[in-house]
Design goal:
The protein is α/β, with parallel strands linked by helices. It folds into 2 domains: about 140 residues, no CATH class; about 70 residues, no CATH class. It contains 8 helices and 10 strands. It has a 7-stranded mixed sheet with strand order 3-2-1-4-7-6-8, with helices on both faces. It has a 3-stranded mixed sheet with strand order 5-10-9. Strand 1, helix 1 and strand 2 form a beta-alpha-beta unit. Helix 1 runs parallel beside helix 8 and helix 6 packs across helix 7. The protein is globular, with a radius of gyration of 17 Å. The two termini are about 25 Å apart. About 5% of the residues have low confidence.
């Protein structure tokens, strides 16, 4: 059995995750767990009232979920829609890989996701060659997930201590990429991008992708959600 977990703290993101799950359940039959302030209908919900702690749940979810029960574990941001079959991504799974998505093809070294990352020249040289990863999706096996999240938590705490006065948010994206760079250089478990044709951003190519992540244009999610569900009814 596979697992997908979401974090949906506050009413707005609860609305997003309800739409995400309805599109997901067209093809996905395995477990979904949602961290939320309110019960998500028909899904296992871990009630989370403390918004400060909720900001870290991407990396600390293993304190509340027994990942060992599952074959693979996927995290998705709440502001996604799943017009295709997410099982196509689970089918990519390999024991020695962590799957991510590119952040708009930005080279990591020049991306906003590179802030506070680099400890040495090897990391800098690698960052000049690879795209940045978006922290709104990752997938790996249950054997890898806990250690990866613990390393990410370590980097997240370090980056938050180093953030400058102009940053007033959790820097999960830079610390996510910092952890991936460490894995590229020092681990047998290698970060790997899923194929570009399996995902999109902000509702592009909906007829062909497994999921689309609405990083900017959230105002049109409801309209696109209705279109996906209407098409699902028409399909045999």
């Amino acid at each position: 059995m596979n697992l997908i977990y979401f974090i949906a703290i506050n009413k707005r993101y609860s609305n997003f995750v309800n739409m995400a799950i309805k599109t997901l359940r067209k093809n996905y039959k395995d477990e979904i767990i949602v961290f939320s302030e309110e019960k998500i209908k028909d899904e296992r919900t871990i009630i989370t009232k403390n918004q400060k702690n909720a900001k870290h749940l991407k990396t600390t979810a293993g304190k509340y979920i027994n990942f060992e029960k599952y074959q693979n574990v996927m995290y998705l941001d709440a502001d996604v829609l799943i017009p295709g079959n997410i099982n196509e991504i689970f089918n990519l799974s390999e024991i020695n890989k962590i799957f991510t998505t590119k952040e708009f093809n930005h080279i990591l070294y020049t991306s906003p996701s590179s802030r506070f990352l680099w400890r040495n020249e090897k990391e800098i040289e690698l960052a000049k060659k690879i795209p940045a990863s978006n922290a709104g999706f990752f997938m790996t096996t249950s054997q890898n997930i806990q250690e990866f999240c613990e390393n990410w938590t370590k980097n997240l705490n370090e980056k938050n201590n180093l953030r400058n006065n102009n940053m007033n948010c959790i820097v999960d994206q830079p610390s996510f990429n910092a952890t991936l760079v460490e894995y590229h250089l020092n681990s047998n478990v290698k970060p790997t991008f899923i194929p570009d044709n399996l995902y999109s951003f902000n509702g592009k190519n909906l007829d062909n992708v497994c999921f689309s992540h609405f990083t900017h244009k959230k105002n049109n999610i409801e309209e696109i959600f209705k279109k996906i569900m209407k098409n699902a009814i028409k399909s045999p």
